[in-house]
Specification:
Layout lengths: L2 H4 L1 H17 L5 H19 L11 H20 L5 H22 L3 H7 L3
Helix pairs in contact: 2-4, 2-5, 3-4, 3-5, 5-6
Length: about 120
């Protein structure tokens, strides 16, 4: 079974959260999503190693994306007993790969306009 098929619910939850931020602020860009995903991944990796997470200086949409993605991942971890932190990190990496692919193909909001049609 493909990773995307096994974790479809989790991937949709993360992408829905991202799409909601985009719908509330049309000046959101793929690069902001990529940064927020990277920060959440870094914080989850730090959590795995019992290290403090790196502080960020986000504001505006960047902060909203970071908080929304972080909150979504924490909810997933709390609600799904068989979901591991490593599973969530891999989901975030999968979304991040999609951000890069659609951004390269369709420009600065390529990923956001793509997922907006589906979630």
């Amino acid at each position: 079974m493909r990773f995307e098929d096994k974790f479809i619910v989790e991937l949709e939850a993360i992408e829905t959260a991202i799409a909601e931020v985009y719908r509330s602020n049309s000046e959101t860009y793929d690069s902001q999503v990529d940064r927020a995903l990277g920060s959440v991944i870094s914080n989850l990796k730090a959590q795995q190693k019992n290290r403090p997470s790196q502080p960020n200086s986000y504001s505006g949409v960047d902060l909203q994306l970071y908080q929304t993605i972080s909150q979504t991942t924490q909810t997933l971890l709390e609600d799904e007993t068989d979901l591991t932190v490593e599973d969530v990190i891999n989901c975030l990496k999968t979304v991040r790969k999609s951000v890069k692919r659609w951004n390269k193909q369709n420009g600065r909001q390529g990923y956001l306009t793509f997922i907006d049609r589906f979630v």
